[in-house]
Amino acid sequence: MPAENQVLTPGQRMPEHVATRLERLILDGVFRPGQLLPSERRLCDRLGVYGSLREGLRILRSKGIIDTRQGHGSTVATLLPVGNQSPLMHLFKDHPRTLFDLLEVRALLEGGVGAVSREPRHLRRPGADHPALS
């Protein structure tokens, strides 16, 4: 599998860079909640890093983004809040573009629902052809 090259940003340590890249793969849906991550060797090959992966995984564990069990590997966390800390909020904080995308989709959906609710009742009957839903 080819390495997914990304440039290390100035002032960023390599473990933070690895954690950021793994977060991006999780946000992009490459790794889904509950999914077992590839072995450390395969992740190193995929990311093109060989000395900082474990520290990057530790950073993600501390944020609650992954869970690790000795002898079983690491899995992507469910990203639901536990206590007063939500792993999903860590992802939004570190990747603000994702939050903006989510809000944009929400606005589009809410606008569509509003248009349907303003239509006369007879046009909203189940089975009726409705232009807003086609």
Automatic annotation (TrEMBL):
Keywords: DNA-binding, Transcription, Transcription regulation. The keyword Cytoplasm does not apply. It comes from the Bacteria. Residues 12-79 form the HTH gntR-type domain. The keyword Transcription regulation applies. This is HTH gntR-type domain-containing protein.
